[in-house]
Amino acid sequence: MEDEMVRSAQRFVNTVYGENKIGVKVEEDGKTGWQLMYALTRALQYELGITDLSNNFGPTTLSTLEATWPSIGFRDTPANVTMIIQSALYAKGYDGSGINGIYDERTEAAVALMKRRMGVTAAFPGSDLVPKVFKALLTMDAYVVVNNGSDTVRAIQQWLNGRYTGRRDFFVMPCDGHFSRDVAKSMIYAVQYEIGMADGVADGWFGNQTEAGLGEHVLTVGAAGNWVRLFSAAMMFNQRFDAFTAAFESTLATAVRSFQRFAALEETGKADVRTWASLLVSYGDQDRKGGACDCTTRITNARAATLKAEGIRIVGRYLTPGGSSLPEKQIQSGELDTIAFNDLRCFPIYQTWNRSADDFYYGAGVHAALAAIDWAKFYGFKNGTTIYFAVDYDAVDWEVTEYIIPHFKGIFRAIGENSSYNVGIYGPRNVCRRVHNQGYAVTSFVSDMSSGFSGNLGYPLPSNWAFDQIVTKWVGSGEGRIEIDVDIVSGRDDGQDSFDTPLDPTGLDTDFDDSYHDAALKDVQDYLVSIGVPETGGDEWNDDDWATIGGISTTEAFESVIRMDPLFTDLARVLRVRKALVQAPVLWELRKWNPLDKFADDAVKDGDRDDSSTGWGQIFAATAIKARNHCIDQGIINGSRLTDADMASVWNRLHEDTIYNITTAAYVTLWDAAEIGVARPGLNTSDSDSQAILARYNGTGDGAEKYGRELIGLYQVLEQYNGTIRTS
Fold this sequence. Notes:
The chain is an alpha/beta fold. The chain folds into 4 domains: 4-140, no CATH class; 142-281, Orthogonal Bundle (Muramoyl-pentapeptide Carboxypeptidase, domain 1), CATH 1.10.101; 292-489, TIM Barrel, CATH 3.20.20.80; 514-727, Lysozyme, CATH 1.10.530. It is built from 29 helices and 8 strands. Strands 1-2-3-4-5-6-7-8 form an 8-stranded mixed barrel, surrounded by 5 helices.
């Protein structure tokens, strides 16, 4: 929403300061935001004589402000400084008295109101603006409940501000009714101050000294005072109690036992050290013994003995290689037999890189799922096993929305359709919580060891946690020495203690080797030209059509198929078919796409017809329904059978979702084989059967027979390269 006084504030900072003085210019759109607050921060630094301007209101800004204007009110403060204050007040929704440069009664009233809402009137009485409050003013923090926040949480925030803002390193936190990273760190400061740490010693990080101090403040029923207030606040922030109280009563003790049971702590009903630790910091007490671990090192008999001596019974191991730096990260040959022989269990982890937002999107999720299925079957993990897919970085909330959730949607759909495995997630608390809430993960493996992650600070342990990673350490000695990440166990996943016979990967297709790119493209072009299909155009096109509709050349069709090669490879491996059998019709249909195809698609969109062949593989919705139902009936894929009532939704997905279309094309080849009475295609299907299957892709009759004859040649060109690559 636009606000004229916010626009005036933006105009003020641009006119009086602008790029020449503070290095930035803000958009004068009347909308409040960080851009304006950063500019006002730079303007204040300019007025203070600071030359190295920054968006951050840091220690230099604060100390200089304290020395220059320790308290701003009805005094001879420069008009520009007062206008900075008034502009910031408007940006935060307070009356800034017209940005007149005079700290008048309206300005005074606005500052006093803001301080009351912060809870700092006792610490900073009156209506003057003191440096710590000035620092808070130049943020987008709210001091009223917003976005369905909690009044009780806000009361805690105000109490913390009021009690501790006089300490050197404690700054005014938001009072918006939401637990957050800043609130979580402020809680640790508060505990350290109550323990008796001096300014400069208290640092907001949970360490040995803090843990030792808490050992002297175990709380039980009957306790009262500020320690109980802090503990009940910590319980509130972790969503385990619903009151902020100074009295430790039986209701709080009951809630504590429930939390201790949930977090796999000893059920004492007391505010003991381990309970305090688990409430205040994601990793809790790192001296706890874990019932599980994960590691990048092969489990040998000697190492298994070490783990058992540590009380560990479940081991997390990786399905995928770790590169030259971690040669044993991937499960090694015979290792699962060793794990089972030593009465240990194993849960699988799938991770390639997964350490930045760019690694996550729907298509990558589908690829990860299909590759994980392939690896899990290779190792013999049984149906019902949960595979944990990694989010190994500190994804902020908007990245979870834009990247992580679509990625796991792809994983969930592909795992559910193509296997009987379950989807788990490895990552920070907020990531695990949000993916689980979407229904895309059954259990979470929480990276709580990374306590500084924004996705851990300010978030409770997810309700579906199975493993809680708390510390890395070396255990054992000699041949049994091994570095592990210690994982607390909830009991929601016990891993596997026996394994199926591994599926033989011999002869399966592998990813395309780009060194063959140019040769393969030329051979495809030459073959298509030999059967009357030039690089561009063709019998079904005229020049106007090509220019108007935007036809696809042989090169473009080939490049599209190569770009989607991981999907073709994954489908071929999971279904145990030749990759070229799916590539050939898709490449052909891309190249042969013509104006009639567009007109037919438009007719479906306009409601003038019910169905058309559409998407990369030019598949009718009716065909997709039959093919998918066949695969469901044969136990090849999972899902509910489709009916004619699903026609529109299936067509839309075929038209809009390339991954769904290509996947369906693979299922169509299996259905085609059944329709013409030949064996299900596999790794050794003859060219004659492949030609018949490809012909049926186009239907029946003379046209289909011609289609099969044309496509078997394209199949053979593609298979020539696929075969060379998989045997090299």
